[in-house]
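WARN no homologs supplied; continuing
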Amino acid sequence: DAGMVGTPPGSAELGDWVGRPVWGRGDASAGAAGVVRGGFETLGLDRITSHCLARNAPSARVLGRLGFREIGRVANSHPKWSPDET
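OK structure emitted
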């Protein structure tokens, strides 16, 4: 059984972090593609969501290549960054 607290049944949230020494090698794209594929094909999910800061263009590109689309912007809830940063 796989899941995440706070997500509706049949859905999950994709999150990632890639260290600076390996930026630009395609690791985030490859890893996320496998997770998304497994979520739909193996777990039978209906929906996978994700988010990144608006200033994080590389993460947005990874999500776009995987078929994610922007549906809105919300205040940032992570304590590392300002809530004003979306």
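The CA atoms of residues 52 and 60 lie 7 Å apart.
OK
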